[in-house]
TrEMBL record:
Name of the protein described by the UniProt record: Aminoglycoside phosphotransferase domain-containing protein
GO terms for MF: ATP binding
Keyword annotations of the record: ATP-binding, Nucleotide-binding
Organism of this sequence: Nitrosomonas oligotropha
PANTHER family assigned to the protein according to its UniProt record, in alphabetical order: N-ACETYLMURAMATE_N-ACETYLGLUCOSAMINE KINASE, TRNA THREONYLCARBAMOYLADENOSINE BIOSYNTHESIS PROTEIN TSAE
InterPro entries, per the entry: Aminoglycoside_PTrfase, Kinase-like_dom_sf
Domain Aminoglycoside phosphotransferase: from-to ranges: 21-243
SUPFAM superfamilies: Protein kinase-like (PK-like) (SSF56112)
A Pfam entry, by short name: APH
Amino acid sequence: MERKQLLERWLQDQFPAQPFTLQPASSDASFRRYFRASLGDQTFIVMDAPPQQEDCTPFLRVAEILTASGVHVPKILAQNLDLGFLLLSDLGNTTFLQALNHQNGNASKLYGEAADALIKIQLSHQAASLPAYDEALLQRELDLFPDWYIAKHLQVDLTEQQQAVLRAVFSRILQNNLAQPKVLVHRDYHSRNLMVTSPNPGIIDFQDAVYGPITYDLVSLFKDAYIHWDEERILDWTIRYWEKARKAGLPIAADFAEFYRDFEWMGVQRHLKVLGIFARLNYRDGKANYLNDMPLVMHYLRKACERYRELAPLLNLLDELHPVESDQKIGYTF
């Protein structure tokens, strides 16, 4: 309650003698909370990021870089970093996920606009100033899978042989990911963090941006944990992105099959990480709703492992840990 009162007092200083109302706008998988402040017919978003747990500085830095790259992000209207408060322009309350759930026929248009914005982001000349998405960070993310998904969620102790399998597969995944060309990576570029706005999309939740593999955000977008698309459609959207990215001069594989393989292997890294994060959100943070999203993530993970011989040991391990009926196979082999 104390932070809410602090926040209201700070807002009164921003809008002296102007009455406002404050409503929750959204919560986050972190300690950040967002409120919508209404003053007459105007609305603003207020970020509450407790300084002992969250640092607003990366958000401000990335907002500046993304604005310079020509994409639509919230404007920073006021800030108090000591208290952990930011006042932002309001990008509305319709996420891509909500729009897609209500009007599925718009999907190709929305994803096309999201891919165009992603290319602008990836062309940023300031990306190299961000933290590196290096081997240490990628490895920490992969380790969330055995630590939280296997040990906490499945309550399984891996045998030495299973641990060796996981280490060998992780090493292959890292080798692929680290060899990819590097660009600015949002890290959560998906349907819950893209808002339906004009210009479209409005992009939020970008404070964890890094300098890393070019396929990462594309996987977040097309193999999203919160909405399912069939493989033919993902393939079609990925080809369209690849063609535009090459024309834009991005450092992208000239051979689509090579690019799609990188995309899928990056997906394997992300899906393993996300399964670990969803388990952690449940068992550590009490956010049980993320467990409902695990089956889709596991579906994407298994499908990719089925397609590449080098990932067969991971698929076998998944079968040992979590036997499932095999889905009907849709095969693209690269």
